[in-house]
Design goal:
- With 299 residues, the protein is an alpha/beta fold.
- It has a single domain, classed as 3-Layer(aba) Sandwich (Rossmann fold), CATH 3.40.50.150.
- The protein has a nine-stranded mixed beta sheet with strand order 1-2-11-10-3-4-6-5-9, with helices on both faces.
- It has seven helices and eleven strands.
Length: 299
């Protein structure tokens, strides 16, 4: 894995070193503007959720006091993602819903998930009430649609090992969304690569829009990360071997891991240096698949 800190107003030479993974260190709002048009076949990402985690960085996305500002910021970023995607490219966006804070302005550390501790909580958005389900995921998806994206699928990611909740007046949340967005009406989509076994096991069927996938812990980062099995069908359906994948919120490097396993190349953008170091450790021993045929074998 190669890490690059781009210079302002200078287009990035992404793969001059022939590395399978290149991570660009910097603020996504600045770095993505330095990437070339129509370059990436597929983008897969999970941005910071609104008011859920404190990354300890001034101006961090997700810590905006105003919900509309958060959504508008991501729509602006994803407009740049659309620019750098090939005309037949796909964008797979993982995002979860959140609740209003109920008036509390901080969150106590949780021994089971230290990453949940926060020194701030955003105020209740205008028009909502304490304890409301905000619907951030759909607000963002629909705003992206209005901005020019084709909204093709809402995929339910069901988490059998979801984070326990102590709430007594609603159900424990055990799902998030993966939205499939495209740049054009017609786009590359390999249905055969992700087909599932039929119930009797004698044939194959199109993959359904509900995916049951466990979260994956990351001890170095103190919270669950983007699981590989969530990323894998996105990359298989949205690209071919040797295509280039983009993750604009690279984090601990799961998209890079899966891209490398599936013989794709990957460019990640990450602001926090500690996460780049974690990603480097996680991707350093990953083996590239030997043959494309192996990639399409259904489980």
């Amino acid at each position: 894995m190669k890490t690059v800190t781009p210079l302002s107003n200078e287009q990035v030479d992404i793969f001059s070193s022939q590395e399978p993974i290149v991570v660009l260190h910097g603020d996504i709002r600045e770095v993505i503007r330095l990437l070339p048009d129509n370059y990436f076949q597929c983008a897969v990402t999970s941005p910071p959720y609104w008011g859920v985690r404190d990354y300890g960085i001034d101006g961090q996305i997700g810590a905006e006091p105003d919900l509309d500002k958060y959504i508008d910021t991501l729509v602006d970023v994803f407009r740049e993602v659309r620019r750098v995607l090939k005309p037949n490219g796909t964008f797979w966006l993982n995002i979860g819903n959140t609740y209003t804070s109920g008036g509390r302005k901080w969150r106590q550390e949780d021994e089971k998930n230290k990453g949940r501790a926060m020194s701030y909580r955003p105020p209740t958005p205008p028009g909502l009430k304490k304890k409301d389900l905000i619907g951030v995921a759909w607000l963002l998806a629909l705003k992206c649609q209005l901005d020019g994206w084709y909204l093709r699928n809402d995929i339910i990611w069901y988490k059998p090992n979801c984070q326990p909740e102590s709430v007594k007046d609603r159900f424990t949340v055990a799902h998030e969304y993966v939205f499939l967005l495209t740049k054009s009406e017609r786009y590359y989509f390999d249905q055969e690569a992700i087909k599932e076994r039929t119930t009797n096991g004698n044939g194959l069927k199109n993959k359904r829009s509900m995916w049951s996938i466990n979260t994956e812990p990351c001890p170095e980062a103190h919270f669950a990360v983007f699981p590989r099995e969530l990323v894998r069908p996105c990359i298989l359906a949205g690209s071919r071997p040797n295509d280039v994948i983009l993750d604009p919120f690279y984090g601990s490097g799961t998209v890079g891991i899966v891209s490398k396993e599936l013989s794709r190349r990957c460019v990640g953008i990450e602001l926090k240096k500690e996460y780049i170091e974690i990603a480097d450790k996680r991707t350093s021993n990953v083996q590239i698949a030997l043959t494309p045929e192996v990639l399409k074998t259904p489980k």
